[in-house]
């Protein structure tokens, strides 16, 4: 099949390009620089020097694709976050998604796949939720929710199979947040905030990518959660992670102090439970995570970091 991937140079996209190319598909990946083009080539894809916000130019490169995967995002990685830091990400998710969906439809694609995060539907009381739960919009999540709607409507109108893969919190040896966390734990500068009891639904980045590969190859209409098999308490995760990299056990910070130092957005992320499952995707498709819990996944991250000399 002919497959077009936006975000093909990112932590998620490059894995999608590599896996699909390895299966013999003709994959074209969006690249915005010479370095990006080289990344796409090194993953076995053909680079497309297109601009996400220039429909005519993008359509030329998407033409003839059977599947279009929109994996571009621009999530800020600094510590103290404000809603305005998400401006480019919001534009990618709204205007970019609309353009990608139109290109996919005009190119006659059979499938359109979009990336979002599971916590768009996280209930405020921390209870379990799934794909049927109502979304809980916040200023930084609204654009993803809008992007989901754009993709699902485009599918409905144009006869494409539209798939929204809502991923849990990614981790992996090359993802920016995991590297920040590892470096912070080493210096005992990444604390457990509050009681550490909040649950996280995580996904190793390789498993997130393999879910996109599944959605490229199988008809999966609608919304699907992509998380590993067992949510973990934030305190257990950080203690385990610190232990595996030979770091001291993290300090515990009261919520008020963490809020003062890091702002309420980041603190909310570490103190709100995010308890969901990929049961729907696992029963409807051939996908299941290679790293069923954070333990296997973190062991793999540590192996990569040791080989690279990062720790
Ligand atoms: N579920 C989750 O937990 C989740 C979801 C998303 C992101 N994240 C994390 O957040 C961190 C940052 O994520 P990220 O997705 O922003 O970074 P990333 O891994 O660098 O990927 C972003 C991709 O989108 C592309 N992109 C960015 N701005 C673009 C634009 N204006 N037009 C077209 N393409 C554009 C990038 O291209 P260039 O290489 O050309 O910049 C890149 O290919 C990562 O560590 C990731 O793990 C987590």
What is the secondary structure topology, with strand pairs?
Elements: E1 2-6, H1 13-22, E2 26-30, H2 34-42, E3 46-48, H3 55-62, E4 67-70, H4 87-106, E5 111-117, H5 142-158, E6 161-167, E7 169-171, H6 176-186, E8 192-193, E9 199-200, E10 202-204, H7 205-217, E11 222-226, E12 232-233, H8 234-244, E13 252-253, H9 255-262, H10 264-271, H11 279-284, H12 294-308
Parallel strand pairs: 1-2, 1-4, 2-3, 4-5, 5-6, 6-11, 7-10, 8-13
Antiparallel strand pairs: 9-12
Helix pairs in contact: 1-7, 3-4, 4-5, 8-12, 9-10
Short synopsis of the structure:
The chain is of the alpha/beta class. It contains twelve helices and 13 strands. It has a domain at 2-171 and 203-229 and 277-290: Rossmann fold, CATH 3.40.50.720.
Return the string of H and E elements. Answer: EHEHEHEHEHEEHEEEHEEHEHHHH
Tally of contiguous helical segments: 12
Main sheet characteristics: 7 strands, parallel
The dominant shape is globular
Average of the residue pLDDT scores: 96
Please count the beta strands (DSSP E, at least 2 residues each): 13
- Helices and strands: which structural class? alpha/beta
Kindly report the name of the CATH homologous superfamily of the domain at 2-171 and 203-229 and 277-290.
NAD(P)-binding Rossmann-like Domain
Radius of gyration: 19 Å
Ligand types: NADP nicotinamide-adenine-dinucleotide phosphate
CATH architecture of the domain at 2-171 and 203-229 and 277-290: 3-Layer(aba) Sandwich
């Amino acid at each position: 099949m002919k497959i077009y991937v936006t975000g093909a140079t990112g932590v998620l996209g490059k894995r999608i390009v590599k896996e699909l190319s390895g299966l013999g598909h003709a994959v074209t990946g969006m690249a915005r620089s010479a370095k990006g083009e080289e990344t796409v080539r090194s993953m076995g894809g053909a680079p497309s020097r297109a601009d996400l916000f220039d429909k005519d130019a993008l359509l030329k490169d998407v033409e003839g694709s059977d599947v279009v995967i929109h994996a571009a995002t621009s999530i800020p990685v600094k510590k103290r976050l404000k809603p305005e830091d998400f401006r480019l990400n919001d534009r990618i998710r709204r205007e970019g998604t609309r353009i990608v969906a139109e290109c996919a439809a005009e190119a006659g694609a059979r499938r359109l796949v979009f990336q979002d995060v599971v916590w768009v539907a996280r209930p405020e009381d921390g209870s379990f939720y799934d794909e049927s739960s109502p979304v809980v919009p916040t200023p930084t999540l609204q654009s993803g929710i809008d992007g989901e709607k754009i993709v699902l409507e485009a599918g409905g109108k144009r006869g494409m199979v539209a798939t929204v893969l809502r991923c849990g919190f990614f981790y992996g040896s090359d993802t920016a947040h995991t590297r920040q966390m590892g470096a912070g734990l080493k210096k005992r500068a990444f604390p457990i905030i509050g009681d550490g009891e909040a649950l996280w639904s995580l996904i190793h980045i390789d498993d997130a990518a393999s879910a996109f590969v599944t959605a490229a190859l199988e008809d999966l209409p609608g919304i699907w959660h992509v998380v590993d098999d067992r949510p973990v308490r934030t305190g257990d995760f950080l203690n385990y992670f610190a232990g595996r990299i030979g770091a001291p056990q993290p300090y515990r910070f009261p919520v008020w102090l963490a809020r003062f130092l890091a702002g309420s957005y980041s603190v909310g992320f570490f103190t709100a439970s995010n308890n969901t499952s990929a049961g729907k995707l696992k029963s409807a498709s051939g996908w299941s995570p290679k790293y069923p819990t954070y333990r296997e996944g973190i062991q793999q991250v540590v192996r990569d970091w040791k080989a690279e000399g990062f720790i």
